[in-house]
Amino acid sequence: MMKKRIASCIMGIMLLSMSIGILGCGKENKVPEEGNDSSVAAEAEEGNDSNVAAEAEEGSAPVELVYWNQWTQEDEIAFLEKYIEEYNNSQDKYHVSFLAIPFEEYTTTKLATAFATNEAPDIFECSPAIINQYLDAGVCEPLDDIITDDIKQDYTEAAFDRVSRDGVIYGIPLDGDLVGLYYNKEILEQNGVTPPTTWDELKTAAAKLNTDDYAGFTFEVDKGDWQCFTFYPFVWMQGGSLFTEEGLANLNSEEVVNALQLWRDLLDSGNCNETPGRSVSDISILTNGETAMQINGSWSVFRADPEKYGVVPLPAATANGNTASVAGGWNVMVNNQNGEEKIAGAKDFISWMWLNKDHVTEFNTKAKFSYCMRESVIEAGKDVYQSSENAIVFSEEVLQTAKPEIALSGEAKEIVATMIQDALYNTSAQEAADNAQESMLQYQKESGAKFSG
């Protein structure tokens, strides 16, 4: 009966999330090439190979564990293949296979559907944009027993805030992604444009750079979590917030309306890429020559040649004003619905894999470029964080301005996402903000939900 209630809860959230769009903590959507090791995807969807099946008949097969995530880039896949194979070879009690699912599919339908149909993986990952629906549904296993005091002290004070409920930890933070403004050095130089530092300079630069061959500027115009993720800093850099200190809606504040108006002005100018054809979390929009400037994340430091592409903090609202960024990241979780044996195995694997400082350092500095909220990892990776001009910008200028991504419920996230879309296409910025404020306050009154950010 409990599983039916949980499935019903997840299905309801899933249907809502399907209308919201993709997640904000930025990822590029690249499907793994065919021919990856069978432990990557085939075993996860089609079952075990004949050797494992034969062992099962003899009663000596290891416990099969399935791990789902959204790490679909080539270096990420290689990292996971390497260490999952090493783990499987290190013991014979458990066997882990993983499925790397394209980001949009993972966050909108695949994971939620799997829980709704009792086919969820043993190990999965969540970002702040989707984590609440799984915590609310009660499908996550507590991890306090594997996160020792020594390990906990190695993380920043706020590292476990997003993965905890009532003092219980349900997830291990893996990474931290930031956003900035990337630009094509040659195009800006040819047009006598310096990277913009204010909103007015951004508008002027977009107009000067825009041509029939490429857009002057690209930001996310499609509704979804990634759009919300990149919108928040434009409110925060003015000293504003989407929610009050008491956790109530602040969506029609001056700072929110100003940020909405900026985005509407940019869109109406005709100097921006309104149809990029893919998520703006994909830096190839810039590197393929489709735009001169693009909002994108720290994960693209290794994917945008620093000789050709630069990065600066997001432009401030006014001259000498503050900039801001957002810090999102993924957390590994354990499904508590598949039985004690699988729970024990899942905990054993994630302890071996994701509580190992060396593994996490390699993941954050070689498989991708991101900032773990674990002090020893930041120290171990310091050379990488200073390895190029763009890496230094993120490490020394953007990181210090970042605030945690807002963790919203599905209903609250839909209200914010609708507000941004309405301001871009349907109503004035003020009207969109007023409507969202009314809807959010009503939702909070009925649900008792409070949010921070």
TrEMBL record:
Protein name per its UniProtKB record: ABC transporter substrate-binding protein
Q: Which SUPFAM superfamilies match?
A: Periplasmic binding protein-like II (SSF53850)
Tell me its family.
Answer: Belongs to the bacterial solute-binding protein 1 family.
Task: Name the domain of life.
Answer: Bacteria
Q: Which Gene3D superfamilies match?
A: Periplasmic binding protein-like II (3.40.190.10)
| Signal peptide from the UniProt entry | 1-24
Keywords of this entry: Signal, Transport
Gene source species: Suilimivivens aceti
Q: Which PANTHER family match?
A: MALTOSE-BINDING PERIPLASMIC PROTEIN (PTHR30061), MALTOSE_MALTODEXTRIN-BINDING PERIPLASMIC PROTEIN (PTHR30061:SF50)
